[in-house]
Amino acid sequence: MREFGYQRVHDVPGAVALCGEEPAARYLGGGTNLVDLMKAGVERPALLIDIRELPLDRIEATASGGLRIGATVTNSDLAAHPRVRLGYPALTQAVLAGASGQLRNMATVGGNLLQRTRCGYFTDTALPCNKRSPGSGCPAVAGEHHNHAILGATEHCVAVHPSDMGVALAALDAVVSYETADGPGELAFTDFYLPVGDTPHRETALPGGALITGITLPPAPVAANSRYRKVRERASYAFAIGSVAAALEVRGGVVRDARLALGAVASRPWRARTAERALIGGPASAEAFEAAADAELAAAEPLPHNRYKVALMRNLVVAVLTELAEQADPAEETVR
After folding, report:
1. What is the pLDDT of residue 329?
2. Second label for 201, Cα 20 to 30 Å away, from 15, 138, 252, 287?
3. How far is CA 301 from CA 151, 236, 304, 307, in A?
4. pLDDT for the residue 330
5. CA–CA separation, 286 vs 317, rounded Å?
6. In which element (H, E) is residue 249 found?
């Protein structure tokens, strides 16, 4: 690890101004990903701006009935908050699935959004990687890619985004707030991450030097009947090989509202809009859930060693939706 500067800040304008003075600066929250990448030589900031004492550590109700989550709220506090557990259970489940208790105590909500891929080619500086060194190539395409993308990838990058929390936020229509030297801004979560295209090193739509200040969850009755399920290669804490965040409203055996996002299948949490359109207004049946999953996964372009993900994700979507349908409308037996 090379030498770097360190400065603690106590107000948002001061943090943003300091970052503007040093283009190679990085904001430091819990450091659970950034510090590891610094040790590996992947990240090489000239200055770390410690934001942990900024007044961004609260979870508060919004005037419209949603929730505002500060950027420095720890993952542990987020998962344990009563309004999150009751109103947005998929978010609590996703956070608890994401890491050990020790890491959750350190990791912050804002930092979680900015964590980088765990692709082995990205984290090994002896190997080429377009995400780390633009134009150097993507050896994963012809190399080790069993846990890489099946949706939205290009020949320039097939890595997947590692966040569990981000999958739930994508399904829940979250909005990311940020601050720049020019003032505040917002991004819908589904617009927060950029498509891979031919510039995989550009990962988010945040303006340069922007500081994430919080996340807003809009009021959504359907979110109370939500679930996050993660499949991993071992029972202990590990990154997903596939995950689903879903919310479902069923009345009289008919799907009235549906939210669905997939994880570990793309460079960003994948909002399954095609599947949602197929579900809403249709029967809450296994056949309808299978058809919706197939419609979403019709765009999949798996590589030779990750073809299993198509069937895995199909089965996972159907299983989660079936459980939610039975929970949402217990008087109606889900057709199998």
Report:
1. 63
2. 15
3. 6, 29, 10, 8
4. 60
5. 10
6. strand 242-251
